[in-house]
């Protein structure tokens, strides 16, 4: 005679509880495995980054000409016009650079004397150099009341010191991997002969100045 096995409600509840504990265990194991793989992947990226250690791009001002620097006395407004050439170099042998949102402007004694001049985005390969030419123009820009005094003082010394500045966002490229955006700030100091009306120039290639670059 066959035996009839009857499972009590208590037995069923115990089995369901066992299945739930197994499911939770599997979930924890899957989560641990995923976390380990993610950590290894991020560690690999960090290791590659530390080995390559990308160097910041180098800039130098090769040429600058000032065509206009007119001050209206009342109110103190300035009209200006400059033409310049910058040399941008990528010193890295394994890292490329994307330049996004690059713009240039000129300043004089801490006062911006031209509007921002945007430069089209471009990619710079390993050990590559690019010439960047730009026309900087200022129209009725407000300046401080001390501006005429600064100009008169520079006319006395016959030297005009201008700062050409560039702001951009750059991305590093290693193989097929591209980093996030980093802010780039460039400051170039150029000293020009100052005549009785406007600066006489341009600054030649031999007299070009190195620029300070901050990433």
From TrEMBL:
Lineage top rank: taxon: Eukaryota
Subcellular localization, as worded in the UniProt entry: Membrane
Any Pfam family: LEA_2
Regions crossing the membrane: 30-52
Keyword Nucleotide-binding attached: no
Domain Late embryogenesis abundant protein LEA-2 subgroup: start-end pairs: 86-188
Major localization listed first in the record, in broad terms: membrane
One GO-annotated biological process of the protein: defense response to other organism
UniProt keyword terms in alphabetical order: Membrane, Transmembrane, Transmembrane helix
Topology in the lipid bilayer: Single-pass membrane protein
InterPro entries: LEA_2, NDR1-like
Any one cellular-component term (Gene Ontology): plasmodesma
Name listed for the protein in its UniProt record: Late embryogenesis abundant protein LEA-2 subgroup domain-containing protein
Protein source organism: Punica granatum (Pomegranate)
């Amino acid at each position: 005679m066959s035996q009839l096995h009857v499972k009590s409600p208590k037995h069923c509840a115990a089995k369901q509880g066992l299945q739930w504990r197994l499911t939770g265990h599997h979930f924890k194991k899957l989560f641990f495995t995923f976390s380990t793989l993610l950590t290894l992947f991020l560690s690999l990226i960090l290791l590659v980054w530390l080995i390559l250690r990308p160097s910041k791009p180098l800039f130098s001002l090769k040429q600058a000409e000032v065509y206009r620097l007119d001050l209206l006395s009342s109110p103190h407004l300035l009209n200006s016009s400059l033409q310049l050439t910058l040399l941008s170099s990528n010193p890295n042998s394994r890292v490329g650079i994307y330049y996004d949102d690059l713009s240039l402007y000129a300043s004089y004694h801490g006062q911006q004397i031209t509007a921002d001049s945007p430069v089209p985005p471009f990619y710079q390969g390993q050990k590559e150099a690019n010439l960047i030419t730009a026309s900087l123009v200022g129209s009725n820009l407000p300046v401080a009341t001390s501006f005429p005094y600064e100009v008169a003082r520079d006319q006395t010394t016959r030297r005009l010191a201008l700062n050409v500045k560039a702001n951009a966002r750059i991305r590093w490229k290693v193989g097929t991997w591209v980093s996030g955006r980093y802010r780039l700030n460039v400051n170039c100091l150029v000293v020009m002969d100052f005549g009785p009306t406007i600066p006489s120039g341009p600054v030649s290639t031999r007299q070009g100045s190195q620029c300070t670059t901050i990433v």
